[in-house]
Amino acid sequence: MPETRVPRRRRFLVCEPRHFAVQYAINPWMQPDIRVDVDLAQEQWQALIRAYRSHGHAVDTLEPVAGLPDMVFAANSAVVVGGRVFGSLFHAPERRPESTHYDTWFKTAGFDVYRPESVCEGEGDLVWTGRYVLAGTGFRTTREAHREVQEFFGHPVVSLTLVDPYFYHLDTALFVLDDDNIAYYPEAFSPGSREVLSRLYPDAVLATRDDAAAFGLNSVSDGRHVFIAPQAEALAAGLDARGYVPVPVDLSEFRKAGGGIKCCTQEIRS
Ligand code: ARG
């Protein structure tokens, strides 16, 4: 019998995809000027918010801004641990203006925001495990930023190198299941980083390239429920066998921009 998993209530920050579009290409999933069905995107996104709320999670929203088509990807705006907000400095000039709006939201909500000096893209690459930060580099967030993150939070930061451009953010290749375990796609990482992950998490749930390409690793877990792309079937079955409860939420329209469930979700940890 698999273990009974206990959920923990979360607080999420999200941004409605009212102005969602693909207007530039900054990752291999994006084809500039591909048509995006904004109504479908809105429906899919609303279903995600309903799924969070119906599982007892608190959801805060921030107003989207016209001309910032990737602003829906709230995860990239910051990483928040213990009520401390480490803001973002986007790699792509097109996304840099998003930071002002997110910073304003955090300040209005009563948080101070640290402005980093080096390129870093929030929870896209900086993943809090409950004990330390797993930090991706290779495509976006820099190693200098990893040092800044460690200095700011005073928590250990474990640098991991991403090697596959389709999995350009750490949160496309790995997610945290609970305080003790993670799921990831090993081939997205350099050999040394793979070894680090297997030492830290000998019992991790390993995903295939198909699971990863379906954005199955761009999932959100509350410790029991895993909000996951329905196309990541093998991974969902693997999670189920370990006692987690997959909650399928289809964000297929966001794949055109290289995003999924986690990308749309910023966790606020007080
Ligand atoms: N188009 C966005 C970008 O390339 C997608 C961001 C996805 N976010 C994430 N947390 N992986 O920046």
From TrEMBL:
Which Gene3D superfamilies does the UniProt record give? L-arginine/glycine Amidinotransferase, Chain A (3.75.10.10)
Enzyme Commission code: 3.5.3.18
Keywords attached to this Swiss-Prot or TrEMBL record, sorted alphabetically, are: Hydrolase
SUPFAM superfamilies xref list: Pentein
The molecular function terms of the Gene Ontology recorded here are: dimethylargininase activity
- InterPro entries in the record: DDAH-like
The record's top EC class is hydrolase
Q: Which family does it belong to?
A: Belongs to the DDAH family.
The protein's name: Dimethylargininase
Which species does this protein come from? Streptomyces lanatus
Organismal lineage: Bacteria, Bacillati, Actinomycetota, Actinomycetes, Kitasatosporales
